[in-house]
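Entry 14. Ran structure prediction on the chain below.
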Amino acid sequence: MSISNRGVTAFLLDRFEELVSGIALVVMVACVCWGVITRYVTETPAAWAAEMAGLSFAWLVFMGSAAAFKYGGMHMSIDMLVRLLPGFPRRLLTLAVDLLVLAFLTYLVWLSVVFCIASMGDPMPILRWPRSVLYASVGLGSLCMALRYLSVLLRHWRDEELPAPPFTA
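Output, structure tokens:
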């Protein structure tokens, strides 16, 4: 692999969540628009459009959440009381919360794998795709969230700066 290919690969992996959620957003908007057009203009509704929009929405939500984890404080948190604690107890409580979040995300990945395997033979009503395509969004999104959260956790403990969100000035 050449240096330029490594740069492209690193760029794509670094922005994987944004790419997947961005594609899901475009697909969702296109499906909703197509569904509206076919329903009200042609009077022959595209039944698949709503199901595809819902599927895209699931991918958008979970992968978008993973992208927000990458930048640290983009998810809502209430830390008013934690900030009032002195140094060591604050770090200990923060570590306990971080480990709890990682445990929950790991459990979510495991549950998603179980659901994906169990739903391989259960097709979606209109698209006839395995329902595991929907549940995979939960698993991959949760896995990405856990990996990004672990990265943020390590940066916090090393007192390093988090990356700035791409849309800030």
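The first helix runs from residue 3 to 14. Will compare against last week's run tomorrow.
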